[in-house]
Amino acid sequence: MILTDGFLTHYHPIFDSNGKCVCYVGVDISMVLLRTYRLKFLFRTIILSLVAVILVVGLGLWISTKFLVNPINGISRHAIDFMGKNGNVDGMNACVSAIKKLDIRTGDEVENLYASFLKMTENTVQNIIDINKMQEERIQIMQKYNEELEKKVEERTY
Predict the structure, then answer these.
(1) Are 100 and 78 in contact (CB under 8 A)?
(2) Burial bucket for residue 3 (CB in 10 Å: 0-12, 13-18, 19+)
(3) HSE on the CB side for 21, CA within 13 Å?
(4) How far is C-alpha 47 from the geometric centre of its chain's CA atoms?
(5) pTM greater than the 0.85 cutoff
(6) Alpha helices, DSSP H only, in 2-108?
């Protein structure tokens, strides 16, 4: 290869069937053409790299939104709604039904968080129902004792 006034020249020997060099073939390539080709190649490489990075980042954002952000936001919204019911069993049961409809299936910690939250809300509603039932039973017992006491008072006063 020989570099001359703006050209890159390359000579290659041509051999006959006996292995004897019979001539040389020469090629001249313009350095301006090479520079232009190199710049176009560099530009294409940069553009393709940027497109690849944008695709990877976009895919990462989509995956994190679908499997992380949206499920956690759903759990958070329903937690706020559930806590806003302040012991209203019917309202809390409606919230539990809405939480079940989330049906988060990510196969990771987010799904575990969802399952735990769902179980906690179900247990909370059941505990409130049990407490209300116990209170009603105590009220009935106290009313019964009160009636018995009133009878005893009446018997003693007459």
Answers:
(1) no
(2) exposed
(3) 6
(4) 29
(5) no
(6) 31-64, 70-83, 89-102
pLDDT of the residue at 69: 94
Pairing relationship of beta strands 2-4 and 7-15 according to DSSP bridges: antiparallel
Other Cβ atoms less than 10 A from the Cβ of 129: the count is 13
The backbone torsions φ and ψ at residue 41, rounded to the nearest 5 degrees and listed phi first, read: -60, -45
For 79, the token pair is 């937690």
* Measured CA angle at 125 (ends 122, 68), to 5 deg: 40
The DSSP call for residue 107 is S
* pLDDT recorded at residue 38: 93
Structure confidence at residue 7 (pLDDT): 86
Whole-number pLDDT of residue 73: 96
Report, as ranges of residue numbers, the positions in the chain whose pLDDT lies below 50.
none
Give me the count of residues in the chain: 158
What letter does residue 65 receive in the DSSP assignment? I
Under 8 Å CB-to-CB from 105, ≥6 apart: which residues?
A: 111
- Paired with 28 in beta bridges are 9
pLDDT for residue 3: 55
Closest C-alpha among 84, 83, 88, 114 to residue 101:
114
